[in-house]
Each structure stands twice: as C-alpha cells, then as structure tokens.
Design a protein that fits this description.
Elements lengths: L2 H8 L4 H8 L5 H7 L9 H4 L15 E7 L4 E6 L11 E7 L3 E5 L4 E3 L8 E8 L11 E3 L9 E9 L5 E6 L10 E3 L9 E7 L8 E6 L4 E2 L2 E5 L2 E6 L6 E8 L7 E8 L12 H9 L22 H9 L7
Parallel strand pairs: 10-17
Antiparallel strand pairs: 1-2, 2-5, 3-4, 3-6, 6-7, 8-9, 8-11, 11-15, 12-13, 12-16, 14-15, 16-17
Helix pairs in contact: 1-2, 5-6
The structure holds calcium ion (2 copies).
Length: 323
C-alpha cells in the first residue's frame, strides 16, 4: 500500500477507489484536488470524460430501449448508464407523462402503474446513486391497453443473496446456445438450483410446457412455476460450465414459443468464457463491498457480501475455459 492509499484510507475512501487509484484509473493529482490539497492545473486529457474518476458523481443517463404496453401499466426497458458516477447505481426511476406517474426498480424494466388505457404517454428513466440522480434518458412512447398482446419483457437469471435479497442477471435471449451467451458466474444454490425467470407484460395464468436442453440437445431436469407476470423455471442440478436453452410454450394459451440460452460458469464475471486473472482481479477489487444492484455478480457464493471467500472461489478455477 502506497502513500496515497494510506491518505485515502485516512479519509475513509472505499477499497474499490483505492484499487482504481493503484491501477492508475485515478491519478494522485485527482485525489489531491479532491481533498483540498494544492490546486492542480487540469490538462486536456484530465478534462476529457470524468475528471474525477476516483470521486463520486451522479451517474450518466440510462438508455431506454422500449416501453411495452400493459393494462394500465407500462414496462420501461433500458440499459444501465456507461458511467455510474463511481458509486453503485442504487435505483432507476421511470416517469411517464402526462401526469408525471413514476415507478422505481433496481434493474430493467421499471413498471409504471396507474396509467390511463388508450392514452399516449412518453416515458423516460433516470439512474440514482448515493450522490444524486442522472439527467433523464430519451423518451419512449407507449399506449396502455386493456388487453395487450402477450409480450416477453425480459429474461433473467435470479439468485438469492441471503439478507441482501434476490438479484436478477439480465439474459440476452437473442443469442443462440453456441454463441456469445450471457454467463451467470454465481454458484448454483444447493436448495434452489438455478432459476431462470421470463418476465411478461401481463399476469400469467397458465404455462403448458417447459423444457431445458444442453448443447447436445439432451434434456435437463426442470420445473416451472408462475408468480404474477413471471414464469419461473427452476433447474435443480446442473454441472458447472454448461450452456442451456430454456423453452416455454402455451403461456396463457398462446401458440408462441419463448426461449433463452445462457451459460452457467462459476467465476467468469466478465463473460469471456474463460476464468483468468482479469476475473480474479475484478472480484478481489470489490472485496469488502456489500452485495447490491451493481456488485451482485461478484458475490459468487451468493452470501450477501463480497469477501475473501468469493476471491478464493474464482482463484480456484483459474485457467478453466467454457466448452
Ligand atoms: Ca472471464
Ligand atoms: Ca460472497
């Protein structure tokens, strides 16, 4: 630990920012300026982007992809901001006008309720961290309808992180099983297995069938439940480093088949299909942090915090590659 780390430690800076500093993301001049030490003269390079990479700011604006209609509701889907302000994004708020009706969530989509059916709304999203709230995203248009067509809003891999609660990893459900699928790097739960959740725009009353297959098209044991507008698929046992495709059909009597492919590969936090130093460093850098919407992926053992136990898990798997 260098002089600067010691300085940061004294003023209560968190370990992640110390790590960034030591990795050269922040400069000593940044930190001196931040803590009121002799003024620095900014260079053009300093002023490009965030001049205080180690200092907290409000996040950038999320990017809204689509607003989906429901009965009196709208589902606002978005991507997180590229820049989180140096602190975890703790919530996203959607606002729909006219009427300034709002909803909040810790990840996409945000649901806004109490909308008037057959009324055109414009909805935008902001991101908030402990420092403040971003400017609003662009606006997406939506017209709530009493009987909207069944629409898949999102697919997620959900795990319970103890007292920290459930955290959903968004799955890119367009990628085929042998492609660059989303990887969930968290361990399988001994009690609950893996859980893949299909989120729809309306209450789900029935699902005719669910199947899960691996890359050889062999069936993987599974079960299905519904809760509100979610179809919850449970995979009780699965070997690590396995790709699967989850298919559901007969949702509310629909003839449509909904599917998503993803991989379960413990420790591959950067979705590169190998576990190496980059994954180890990412987990290590967050050691001591609480599990939240920004850090849950690094809580490999789903304990509710990121610690040496998580680093040990990823270290033990160094060198492994996804088939
Ligand atoms: Ca990796
Ligand atoms: Ca943990």
């Amino acid at each position: 630990m260098g002089l600067l780390s010691a300085l940061l430690g004294l003023v209560g800076c968190d370990p992640q920012r110390i790590a960034e500093l030591e990795e050269g993301v922040a400069t000593e001049a940044d930190v001196r300026a931040r803590f009121g030490e002799p003024a620095k003269i900014w260079s053009a390079a300093d002023l490009a982007g965030n001049p205080f990479p180690g200092a907290a700011a409000q996040p950038g604006a999320p990017v809204v992809s689509v607003a989906t209609a429901s009965d009196g509701r709208a589902f606002i889907s978005f991507s997180p901001p590229q820049f989180d302000g140096g602190l975890p994004v703790t919530s996203y708020t959607a606002i729909c006008n006219p009427g300034a009706l709002t909803g909040t969530a810790i990840h996409s989509p945000v649901i806004v309720s109490n909308l008037l059916n057959r009324t055109l709304y414009g909805c935008s999203v902001t991101a908030s961290n402990a420092t403040g709230t971003s400017i609003a995203s662009a606006t997406a248009a939506v017209i709530p309808t009493p009987t909207p067509p069944l629409t898949l809003i999102a697919v997620v891999s959900r795990k319970n992180h103890g007292v920290a609660g459930d955290f959903d990893l968004p799955i890119d459900n367009v990628v085929p099983i042998n492609g660059a699928t989303t990887v969930d790097p968290r361990i399988i739960s001994a009690s609950a297995g893996h859980t893949v959740v299909f989120k729809f725009n309306t209450t789900i009353s029935a699902v005719a069938a669910v199947s899960v297959v691996d890359t050889t098209n062999a069936a993987v044991a599974t079960s299905v439940n519904t809760a509100g507008s979610e179809v919850i698929v449970t995979i009780p046992t699965l070997a690590d480093a396995t790709r699967v495709t989850v298919l559901i059909n007969g949702v509310n009597g629909s003839a449509q088949v909904f599917s998503a492919s993803l991989a379960f590969f413990v420790g591959d936090v950067n979705n590169s299909f190998t576990v190496n130093a980059s994954d180890i460093n990412s987990v290590k850098a967050r050691s001591g942090q609480a599990t939240n919407a920004s850090t849950f992926k690094f809580d490999l053992n789903t304990s509710g915090s990121i610690s040496a136990a998580d680093t040990a898990i990823v270290k033990a798997r160094s060198g492994l590659t996804m088939p």
